[in-house]
Amino acid sequence: MPVAALEKDVAEILIDEATLQAKVAELGAAISADYVDRQVTLVSVLKGALPFMADLMRSITLPLRIDLMEVSSYGGATETSGQVRILKDLSSSIEGKHVLIVEDIIDTGLTLNYLSEYLRGKDPASLRICALLDKPARRLVEIDIAYRGFLIPDRFVIGYGLDYDEIYRNLPYIGVLRPEVYGGE
Amino acid sequence: MTTSPRFAHASEAELARILDYYKVAWQYEPHVFPIRWNPDGVVVESFAPDFYLPELEMYVELTTLKQSLVRKKNRKLRHLRELYPMLRIKLFYARDFRALLLKYGRLDAAASLIGIDGQPPPRRSGLEEGGPGAAKPDLSPGVVAPAID
Questions:
Q1: Domains plus CATH for chain B?
Q2: Which of the residues in chain A have pLDDT under 50?
Q3: What is the average pLDDT value for chain A, to the nearest integer?
Q4: pTM for the full model?
Q5: Separation of first and last alpha carbons in chain A
Q6: Do A75 and B56 make contact, defined as CB atoms within 8 angstroms?
Q7: Reported ipTM exceeds the 0.85 cut
Q8: B18 chain-A contacts, CB cut-off 8 A
Q9: What mean pLDDT do residues B56-72 have?
Q10: Which residue blocks in chain A are alpha helix, DSSP H?
Q11: CB B23 to CB A84 under 8 A?
Q12: What is the full DSSP assignment across A133-179?
């Protein structure tokens, strides 16, 4: 399906491509300044953060390492006994390393809270969070975000890695999905 | 996994499962806060938030009724916040919970959990232990009241 065919499902472009790229460059510059005397390891969470990670790492002007993780989501859990599972763990040790988690979006904070605790258990020298989008309206767990891209309203967003039913990740902007697509009001 | 309490509403059980999944400790209705007294000082109205998350020191109240039906709960919550300003309490409306289920691809569950009245509340004395870190209801002296929401 061509990307143009996806666009009919977009009710509104919330953050256009140019604005996104400018913000990513700004975040990259801030991270470069803060870690100038330390080597940072960027840890990204599949799959949604992939485009952000790819752009952010290229905007950081320091030597860096990257690693990728994937964790199961509640939606795939079986009835009552499910707990988060690490679907893909880190490839290298982060003990004594300066770790920056790169996330696409934070809303409830549940996944990131779990992930932060998991990574802290691996004894990094430091652990901070960079999130492109922060949707605080439904926050359950307070998250200390060191680098924040955009505060966004409580709407269902897609694009730039964010999906609905695994589609729309390749849109180059952040859009709002038409409610009728997911049977909303 | 510990035994779940008897929840008043299926949506509460679903939220408990989500919290369990992400290893967030919770207690179900562990505290009852009086919010109105008669002239003799007898408590005539109380509020028991649905969940307490001890590690986060936060209460969560889940109301999956239609928006038009939540005015009474909003009033009670406002009163609670006035009387107990130190409490951190997060109110989840039907639209919030629906969005949460949508995020997890659980629209089927949303359809059956939202916009309906809950089952009759269980007897408070019948509560059992909740999820990780759950404790028996901590009803401090003088805070138990007859009208529990």
A1: 10-118 (3.40.960)
A2: 78-80
A3: 91
A4: 0.79
A5: 26
A6: no
A7: no
A8: 74, 110
A9: 79
A10: 3-7, 17-34, 50-59, 110-120
A11: yes
A12: EE-GGG-SS----SEEEEE--SS-EEBTTB-BTTBSTT-SSEEEEPG
